[in-house]
Amino acid sequence: MNIILLGAPGAGKGTQATKISDAYALPHISTGDIFRENIKNQTEIGLLAKSFIDKGQLVPDEVTCKIVEERIGRADCQNGYMLDGFPRTIAQAEALDAITKIDLVINIDVDFSLLMDRLCGRRVCKDCGESYHVSRLGGATTCSRCGGELYQRKDDNPETVQSRLDVYNAQTAPLIEYYEKKGLLFNVVGNTTPEDVYAKVAAKLDSLK
Ligand code: AP5
Question: Which of 7, 67, 75, 149 is the most exposed place for a label (fewest CB within 10 A)?
Fold first, then answer.
């Protein structure tokens, strides 16, 4: 099964992707994670991506599409995969349609008023990628799963988050209608707990088996 996770920044795509990937043995492909890995390794793509990500803008379509095409062409994606954060523009969705068949698009719908706090309060483990909210950490600075150091993403500050939300509204939100018209869209309300959201997503995935 080939799945797309759609949703605004902070909607909980990464949180749900980890759970789905574990339960359904689907490779989790996050374009954001791929760019951050490239930035860490100071590759040419990383240097280019950084200039856009730091401003809350999208990395150009041609760069992003090439990365995804290469990634889903690998052996571990032969029996399905889950895309997190791709596509983000109509052009990316059309490029994806030209190379693969998508079975389901899960759109996590969260009140915009919650997103700024979720993102500015997020802390991420440097080692395993687990994310936390600062209000529930009780002052802890290490990951309760693996002991790794927690850090704040550079793009999780109020100004950049606002820009990411604006970009989402202008360029990514139209994908909801795009996939609705294709009959592929599954909407799930993301305002409740991660466990509750996951239970609804899992019920949908099980119904498609
Ligand atoms: P990316 O890394 O994809 O960032 P994003 O889409 O902004 O999404 P986030 O990772 O910030 O949020 P999320 O929805 O995964 O939420 P999470 O589960 O962490 O992209 C970063 C940048 O890379 C982009 O801005 C762009 O520049 C570039 N890029 C990436 N893909 C691209 C593309 N296709 N084209 C061009 N450029 C691209 O949850 C957030 C917080 O909320 C966490 O603290 C979590 O613990 C908490 N939380 C999650 N679920 C719940 C819940 N149900 N209740 C309460 N709290 C919750």
Answer: 75
Cα–Cα distance for residue pair 40/8, rounded to 1 Å: 24
Q: Judging by DSSP bridges, how do beta strands 185-189 and 104-109 pair with one another?
A: parallel
- Give the distance (Å) from ligand 1 centre to CA of residue 173: 14
CA distance 98 to 78: 17
For the chain, counts of helices (H) and of strands (E) = 9, 8
Cα of 9 vs centre of ligand 1, distance in Å, is: 4
Q: Which 3-state string (H, E, C) describes 169-186?
A: HHHHCHHHHHHHHCCCEE
List the catalytic residues.
Answer: 13, 88, 122, 153, 164
List the structure tokens of 178. Answer: 């795009």
* Best probe residue, ligand 1, of 37, 58, 175 (max atoms within 8 Å of C-beta): 58
Q: Does ligand 1 come within 6 angstroms of the Cβ of 164? A: yes
pLDDT in tens, the chain (209 residues): 999 999 999 999 999 999 999 999 999 999 999 999 999 999 999 999 999 999 999 999 999 999 999 999 999 999 999 999 999 999 999 999 999 999 999 999 999 999 999 999 999 999 988 888 999 899 999 999 899 999 999 999 999 999 999 999 999 999 999 999 999 999 999 999 999 999 999 999 999 97
**Cα angle for residues 132, 164, 114 (degrees, 5° grid):** 50
Q: Which residues are 122's β-sheet partners?
A: 133
